[in-house]
Amino acid sequence: MNGLMMDEPLLLTHLVRRAARLFWEKRILSRTQFGVTEYTYADLYRRACQLGHVLERLGIKAGERVGTFAWNTFRHLELYFGVPASGRVLHTLNIRLFPEQIAYIVNHAEDAIIFVDYALIPQLEKLAPELRSVRAYVAMGDGPLPETSLKPAYAYEDLLREAPTSDPFPALDEQTAAAMCYTSGTTGNPKGVVYSHRALVLHTFAQCMADAFGLRESDVIMPVVPMFHANAWGLPYGATMIGATQVYPGVQPTPEDICQLIETHRVTVTAGVPTVLLGILAALEKRPYDLSSLRCVPCGGSAVPESLLERFDALGITVVQAWGMTETSPLASVSHPLSVMADWPEERKRKVRAKQGRPLPFVEMRIVAEDGREQPWDGKSVGELEVRGPWIVGSYYRDERSAASFDRGWFKTGDIGTIDEYGYLQITDRAKDVIKSGGEWISSVELENTIMAHPKVAEAAVIGLPHERWQERPLACVVLRPGETLTKEELLAFLEPRVAKWWLPDDVVFLDALPKTSVGKVAKRELRENFRNYRWPAK
Ligand code: ADP
Q1: Which CATH number fits the domain 12-197, given the four candidates 3.40.50.300, 3.30.110.10, 3.10.20.740, 3.40.50.12780?
Q2: pLDDT at residue 193 above 80?
Q3: Pocket of ligand 1, candidates 193, 228, 302: which has the most ligand atoms within 8 Å of its Cβ, to mutate?
Q4: pTM for the complete prediction?
Q5: Is the pLDDT of residue 1 over 80?
Q6: Which residues are CB-neighbours of 476 under 8 A, at least 6 positions away?
Q7: Does the domain formed by 357-430 have CATH 3.30.565.10?
């Protein structure tokens, strides 16, 4: 300490202690099979403290990884605080990955213990024989511990009931590991990212800023994005820091459950990937729900189509696009139009909102061409997006693939895009999804957005498939809205005035659904695989 200011570390512990002090009576609700459980921040803090004692009693050492295999519930929230605040590392496992991938991840992270929802016990039991480092399982749910082959297994509520309520949280260095997540591993094995307390605290501040999601005490925040995916975009931390009412959607919520929770609890902020928001729109087509309480709906994880923004605008609900990755904690940029754009027509502003946004404070971005040169911010020059900042990954956890992901101190995202003169990032593709046609690149994201602007289209994905003459050409895979019909010719006629001629898909196929990844993004690799034997129609 140099004496200028106090050397107080930035710890997640502070957030939950503060919430208990200042917002003790504010509520946290959680959907269960019996309805909705409800308690206060005072309860959250008390139970997070008890959890710290439980981990001690079970012999989990400081720095050891504590796995969670769980949906978005109040118990998972307790783990979000109790584990890092007690000096252990919260490791959220993606329940939707393939069993081999989950086993790889647990073994690679060497999780010492796993907390599992009652509802997910059968799934974990199948994996358990493969898990080499796990010494105990703790099952979370209401009622008695179900019969299980997991050994040794404890009931979360029993352990908590017997634990002291005193605050067990030690003083920690802010660089202490707080949490970790693995990327979904679309290529090769998943890679681990470890977040420090400092990184998550700074990320929380940035997220709450008015020009990010503007989270505040009066909000009712419902994290729909899974808590096993990229820290639920940090919402549990942000909501707790500012003392908002929180709503957790519980085990496997349907779009109807989500709409019902929004309506009943007057949710003001909820966040999800575009697929989830499309699900909400589809639910609304079946029956009306009152979603008028929503004031900000962060959306990201894949490009947010303009048509999606427009459909929510029509309902008076503002969808705010954000860009990020597991490697960036995850938020790095948020897209709001600027005050200089205030007079622009809505349509033009929507084009700005359809971009991936401007970097948050302390996040730096640059676009680098294939020859390694930094590109100008002109909205046209394309290259790989590189980022750096205090909540950007510095290296993958015990992974020799790390070196290849960094360029002179910057993290290489694998995303391709541009940055315009106002600093708005626009992602045109992931490097592996770019369509290379005759030496030029076609942006699958832009084509998809244009196709989804067709009123009869529910969802679209464009993939590049090998082509004798052009190397690759675009194939459009389209899902129509229920009850609609559309021909290839009609869709191409719609696209013709809207995209460059050489971008027009060479063929259109209509599908019942698009394959999705574990976190609800279109699984393009799987789609390309499905069309491996596809032949282009003769011209
Ligand atoms: P994965 O998609 O591999 O499961 P992540 O959830 O970490 O892992 O996803 C990060 C990727 O998601 C980014 O690299 C980017 O390609 C994509 N992405 C995230 N937000 C957006 C967005 N707003 N627009 C377009 N792509 C996005």
Answers
A1: 3.40.50.12780
A2: yes
A3: 302
A4: 0.94
A5: no
A6: 447, 451, 460, 461, 462, 491, 505, 507, 508, 509
A7: no
